């Protein structure tokens, strides 16, 4: 009898252990997921499940052009999610099979071995000056796999399709259709990310360049409140246009498109094929400092984002913010052939009564013989933050404004002196840690294959730090250098070969000459670099 009881108890114990192991073991998720609009079937590779080309809003075509995004229609059966959706129309290409007005799609990367425990989510917004790029240009697989988080990347309307502002164009959203697309994608994430293993209560919005500008705009947008719990701003700030500026740009575009500046002009624009609208938008897209931006003054963005941050009316969430050491150096190439006199003339044009003081701090003679004008102009532009407040002293001041209300604010500078740069560069030109050169360290790309062993180590560290921030609101990760908050008077200098370290913000201020820049009044650069060079009489390369 006792033997029978013992065997019975042993069986119960074995069953209990088996059930415990099954419950603790990673799930084997299906590659078919049910969303609120229908089922999608993805693919799996390298321990990451991928679901591409999921519609998060209705195609903004026909009567939907220049209107807020509408709900996506439902579909029957299972929709293939194995290839990205078409990219949003962008100037510089044709409207062939790779691009379309029908472009409001997103992509989800989720760990293949995820458990039933909901995972934090990184919602990544691509850059490209609000005029170029696509969600499929940002590969979230490495961040997802290395950190056990879910990554969402999105398309949003670009250029004249996403940021045109004209009176009467629509009842809501004029000038901010792209921003409203981002919010629609965030709402899709809130409704659906749980089915992909994500936690809708832990969504970190992140972006680089225009994607980072978008993050600041979303933090400043009342309709976006509650859709995210953390933010990452890479090489971006909080610029915007006023409604008057945006409408002036819109009227100029309408004229370029051959439509009158009258109510009839709206019908004219709406009646044009998308390809014609795109062809006419070169001036609207403009250059690095003359392209579209979010528009303040409406319900989507009542205040300029910079004012919302300064006055404490932006979302108060943990923030990771930083830039690259040499953000604007390639943009200063129009000054490659500048003489000392031409360089000084350009500084006087830009800085007016403060020019002589600027030249004392940034003399032409301090920057060698090769590309002297470029390096000199890039140094003063980078330190003064005149490119929409990007990098340098104004950028540090912006970080301090965030940190004054949010203790979990973390500041970094990407300081790798020689990151890989694809494309043709002038012989002998050193681009340094230029704008966007940190991206191959975070997301796989062609440039990622060119990383040296020390740079690959930095890449692993950055991936872990970004993942730690998404998971905990703090970029510190076990085994890595300590990463104090900005309130501790520290910033993180990111360097290859295990050399990253926290430095005093006083070091940053000294290297950027912030005592000088904070002592004078000046505005952001009002023209593109080639225009300023031409005004100074420089012979362009």
Automatic annotation (TrEMBL):
Highest taxon listed in the record's lineage: Bacteria
**Does the entry feature the keyword Hydrolase, yes or no?**
yes
Q: Does the keyword Hydrolase apply?
A: yes
User: Which residue range or ranges hold the Carboxylesterase type B domain?
Assistant: 31-516
Per UniProt, which keywords does this protein have? Answer: Hydrolase
Task: Report the EC number(s), separated by commas if there are several.
Answer: 3.1.1.-
Q: Which Gene3D superfamilies match?
A: alpha/beta hydrolase (3.40.50.1820)
What are the boundaries of the signal sequence?
none
Family note: Belongs to the type-B carboxylesterase/lipase family.
Q: What is this protein called?
A: Carboxylic ester hydrolase
């Amino acid at each position: 009898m006792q033997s029978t009881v013992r065997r019975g108890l042993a069986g119960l114990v074995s069953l209990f252990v088996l059930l415990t192991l099954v419950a603790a073991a990673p799930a084997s998720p299906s590659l078919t997921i049910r969303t609120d609009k229908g089922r999608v079937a993805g693919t799996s590779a390298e321990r990451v499940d991928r679901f591409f080309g999921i519609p998060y809003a209705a195609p903004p075509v026909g009567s939907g052009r220049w209107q807020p995004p509408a709900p996506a229609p439902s579909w029957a059966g299972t929709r293939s999610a194995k290839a990205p959706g078409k990219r949003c129309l962008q100037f510089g290409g044709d409207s062939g099979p790779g691009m379309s007005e029908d472009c409001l799609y997103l992509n989800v990367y989720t760990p293949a071995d995820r458990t039933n425990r909901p995972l934090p989510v990184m919602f990544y917004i691509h850059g490209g000056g609000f005029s170029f790029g696509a969600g499929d240009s940002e590969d979230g697989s490495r961040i997802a796999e290395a950190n056990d988080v879910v990554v969402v990347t999105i398309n949003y309307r670009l250029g004249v399709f996403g940021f045109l502002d004209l009176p009467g164009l629509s009842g809501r959203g004029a000038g901010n259709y792209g921003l409203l697309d981002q919010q629609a994608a965030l709402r899709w994430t809130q409704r659906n990310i749980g089915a992909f293993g994500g936690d809708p209560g832990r969504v970190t919005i992140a972006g680089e360049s225009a994607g980072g500008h978008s993050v600041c705009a979303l933090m400043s947008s009342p309709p976006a409140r509650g859709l995210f719990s953390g933010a990452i701003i890479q090489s971006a700030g909080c610029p915007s246009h006023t409604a008057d500026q945006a409408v002036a740009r819109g009227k100029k575009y309408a004229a370029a498109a051959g439509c009158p500046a009258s109510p009839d002009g709206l019908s004219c624009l709406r009646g044009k094929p998308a390809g014609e609208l795109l062809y006419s938008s070169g001036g609207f897209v403009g250059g690095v400092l003359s392209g579209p931006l979010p528009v303040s003054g409406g319900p989507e963005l009542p205040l300029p984002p910079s004012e919302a941050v300064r006055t404490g009316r932006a979302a108060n969430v943990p923030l990771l913010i930083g830039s690259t050491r040499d953000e604007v150096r390639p943009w200063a190439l129009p000054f490659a052939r500048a003489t000392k006199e031409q360089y000084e003339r350009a500084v006087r044009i830009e800085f007016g009564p403060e020019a002589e003081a600027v030249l004392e701090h940034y003399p032409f003679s301090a920057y060698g013989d090769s590309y002297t004008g470029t390096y000199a102009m890039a140094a003063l532009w980078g330190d003064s933050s005149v490119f929409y407040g990007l990098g340098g002293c104004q950028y540090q001041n912006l970080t301090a404004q965030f940190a004054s209300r949010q203790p979990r604010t973390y500041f970094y500078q990407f300081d790798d002196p020689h990151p890989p740069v694809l494309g043709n560069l002038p012989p002998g030109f050193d681009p340094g840690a230029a704008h966007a050169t940190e991206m191959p360290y975070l997301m796989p790309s062609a440039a990622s294959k060119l990383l040296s062993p020390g740079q690959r180590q930095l890449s692993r560290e950055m991936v872990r730090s970004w993942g730690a921030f998404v998971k905990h609101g703090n970029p510190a990760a076990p085994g890595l250098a300590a990463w104090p908050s900005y309130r501790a008077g520290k910033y993180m200098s990111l360097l290859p070969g295990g050399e990253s370290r926290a430095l005093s913000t006083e070091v940053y201020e000294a290297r950027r000459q912030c005592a000088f820049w904070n002592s004078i009044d000046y505005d952001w650069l009002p023209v593109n670099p080639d225009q300023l060079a031409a005004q100074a009489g420089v012979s362009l390369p």
